[in-house]
Amino acid sequence: MVLTPPANAGLLSNGGSYLTYAAKHSARQNAVLFSDNDGFLYALGYNQTGNPTLLWAWMPGYLLPSLQNYNTFWQGNNMGPFATIDASPDGGKNWHTYVVGSATANGFVVYDLQLKGTSAPNLGSVVAQYQQTGYSQTLSSPPVFYQVQNAGQSNYGATWAIYALSGSSGSALGILNVTTGTWMVDPLPFTNTATPYIDSSGNLFLGDANGNVYEMSAANLQTLLAQKKDTSIPLSSSGFVAIGNYAPWSSGSLSAAVQYIGGTIYQGFNYLRVQGANGITVFKQSNGVWSPVWTSYTGGAGTWSGGTLTPSTGGPNGVSALPSGSAITDQALLVGGQVIVPVTVPPASSDTCGVSLAEYYVFHLTSGVFPSGSFVSTSGAPITQGFVVGQGTAYRPSLTVFNGRVLLQGGAARNRTGGTTGFPGILGGGLPAGGPMAWRLTLSP
Question: Phi and psi (nearest 5°) for 219?
Answer without folding.
Answer: -65, -45
